[in-house]
From TrEMBL:
Domain of life: Eukaryota
Organism: Dipteronia sinensis
Protein name from the UniProt record: Uncharacterized protein
Xref: InterPro entries: DUF247_pln
Amino acid sequence: MPWDEHDEIKVAHYTDLLRSALLGIFPRDLERSTGKFEAIPTATLLKKSGVRFEPGGCILDMKCTRRNFLVWLCVLTIPHVEANMSSETIFGNTRALENCGYESMSHHFTNFLYFMRSLINSEEELDLLMTEKVVSNKLGDDAEVVKFFERVVDGIAEPEHDIWCGISDNRNAQVTFRDV
């Protein structure tokens, strides 16, 4: 995201800097969302309904677009996530900062973790997202990666608001996941 060299960079903490880099909004932040959080179907259910996954962009650039090839196809663009030895610590600290750190801070990263958890409930879903290059496994065991996505949202309430509230009902793209 281009920014003017005169923009003031406000980083309150090392984890805040890390969060900004993960979200792709450095040095700015967005307003809090007012959309209601809704879990989406798993990756395999979405795939069966015609959704294709592709890696790309940062967390705030996630989108669902409808493309017309021979048939209408929905493409869900999700940033690549690497599950490795340090990911759980980084994700956990970033989530904790959002949820306990600053009252005015958005919960975009926490919402992203819940979004990914909604997609991945089993090794089958993980395998699909690894094949599509959305997730990479540096932990070795696929079952451990599924547990990783469970742990990073464990112990925290489901988000009240969701920056991707429109991704499951994108009126511009005429795509809906609610009927899957």
